[in-house]
Write a structure and sequence with these properties.
This protein is mostly helical. 69% of the residues lie in helices and 0% in strands.
């Protein structure tokens, strides 16, 4: 039995570093029947690192898939991670990764502009915030030394407006994901700091402001079709203070 466990562990490690998820999953399933604790520990480690392992092309996708396996292995529950919160935090990393990919793919001839470089740098910080929250949900503790990295200023979030408008569907999903994490009806938020929660809400608010600003420009140009296209992405409860949002809307419609 020990030889089988050792062999399966090495096999899982090989598939992991080659970025081969399905063979990795098969090896872990076999290992699970022989040593459930070790199999679960491997999945826990992958998730806690956010899938950021040499050789893995899409760490966020690996982390998300391993979260599903981790929960299927019994890693959630009353004495473990909150399944709903864990899925939401892994999904957050995947959505941010998709946005980064979209920025790279939209660059003509692969030449990324300075503004895109700044956007990707900010997205990397947002991804790091998501990873810290994922680690905390796994019980690995937060990193108090990076509290400042959880604070996003309005001006720097404004640099994401163009990216947001270029990829509205993904940012809409990201906003709903944030709502699941920090909304009033969201799951228990293990290990979260006030700065992290505020940082997520500012991202959510920034998405709304991008669409409100675009809506105002469309109306100023009598582009009603364009204005209507932005309405589907507006959610009044996503971080905009009631007094401010109504004033802004009245200004948009010249009321």
């Amino acid at each position: 039995m020990e030889k089988e466990v050792s062999l399966l562990s090495r096999l899982a490690a090989n598939h992991l570093f080659l970025g081969q998820f399905e063979p990795l999953r098969a090896a872990l399933l076999s290992l699970r029947r022989r040593d459930p604790f070790l199999s679960l520990s491997i999945l826990r480690s992958i998730v806690s690192f956010g899938g950021r392992i040499d050789g893995v092309r899409c760490p966020a996708l690996l982390a998300w898939l391993c979260v599903l396996e981790f929960l299927d292995h019994g890693g959630g529950g009353p004495e473990g991670a909150n399944p709903e919160a864990l899925r939401a935090k892994a999904e957050f990393l995947l959505l941010v990764h998709l946005v980064c990919e979209g920025v790279s793919e939209s660059a003509p001839d692969g030449e990324v502009s300075i503004s895109d470089v700044d956007s990707v740098a900010l997205l990397d910080r947002i991804s790091d915030l998501g990873l810290r929250r994922l680690k905390a949900e796994m019980g690995d503790g937060g990193d108090e030394g990076h509290v400042a990295d959880s604070v996003f200023e309005e001006e720097e979030l404004r640099s994401l407006w163009k990216v947001c408008l270029d990829q509205p569907e993904i940012f809409d999903e990201l906003s709903w994901n944030i709502q699941k994490q920090v909304g009033d009806s969201g799951p228990s938020d293990a290990g979260s700091t006030v700065e992290e929660t505020e940082g997520l809400k500012r991202i959510q608010e920034g998405v709304q402001m991008a669409h409100l600003d675009a809506l105002r420009e469309c109306l100023a140009e009598d582009d009603l079709d364009g204005a209507i296209a932005h309405l589907r992405f507006l959610h009044w409860d996503f971080g905009l203070e009631s007094e401010y949002r109504y004033c802004h809307c009245f200004h948009c419609f010249n009321l």
